[in-house]
Recover the amino acids of this structure.
């Protein structure tokens, strides 16, 4: 599994990701805009695509494929540019299933599942512990949609056809409380597995920030 955002602390994101962003834009060149819009669940209004990233309206210009904030027209952070470009390169229009799978069930994810749980579920546990109301408040601030699993769970839409589910189990005298991030089973039709790992990490940090 490739490393989407290689840890190079001595390089700024714009420098570190610039070659990858250029490559991803090059792969999209010449693809029919209406086809890309249909595959990604976005809307194409010449000269750009309109969609939501974590509930925030953004645009992807065409034919340059530069992601900008819809309101300010400022270019998005290189990490966000990369995620959107991966989404447009990977999306094939497969219907969302509504069936949830673990990171281990994604292609190539089993080997990295322990690490993924370490920087997602374990981090949420450190911050929220067994305090269910605190987690629910943080999820509500991010417009999470309640879902009937575990002791409480919320769905978050990162991209039009890509949602994540965060489940909390209260635990008891035999089991500790725990958190887990799941993906719709169609996720690998919209992002490579390492990009899904990045999404899980981003959602974890968004929840922690919302709970501060």
């Amino acid at each position: 599994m490739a490393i989407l955002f290689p840890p190079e602390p001595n390089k700024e994101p714009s420098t570190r990701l610039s070659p990858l962003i250029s490559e991803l834009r090059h792969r999209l060149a010449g693809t029919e805009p209406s086809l890309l819009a249909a595959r990604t669940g976005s809307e194409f209004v010449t000269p750009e695509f309109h969609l939501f990233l974590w509930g925030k309206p953004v645009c992807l210009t065409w034919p340059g494929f530069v992601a900008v904030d819809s309101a300010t027209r400022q270019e998005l952070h290189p990490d966000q540019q990369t995620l959107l470009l991966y989404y447009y390169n990977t999306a094939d229009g497969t219907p969302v299933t509504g069936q949830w799978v673990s990171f281990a069930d994604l292609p190539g994810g089993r080997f990295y599942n322990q690490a993924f749980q370490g920087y997602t579920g374990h981090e949420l546990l450190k911050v929220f512990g067994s305090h269910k109301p605190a987690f629910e408040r943080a999820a509500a601030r991010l417009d999470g949609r309640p879902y009937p699993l575990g002791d409480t769970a919320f769905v978050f839409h990162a991209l039009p056809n890509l949602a994540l589910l965060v489940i909390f189990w209260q635990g008891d005298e035999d089991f500790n409380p725990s958190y887990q991030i799941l993906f719709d089973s169609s996720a690998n039709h919209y992002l490579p597995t390492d990009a899904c790992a990045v999404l899980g990490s981003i959602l974890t940090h968004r929840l922690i920030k919302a709970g501060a």
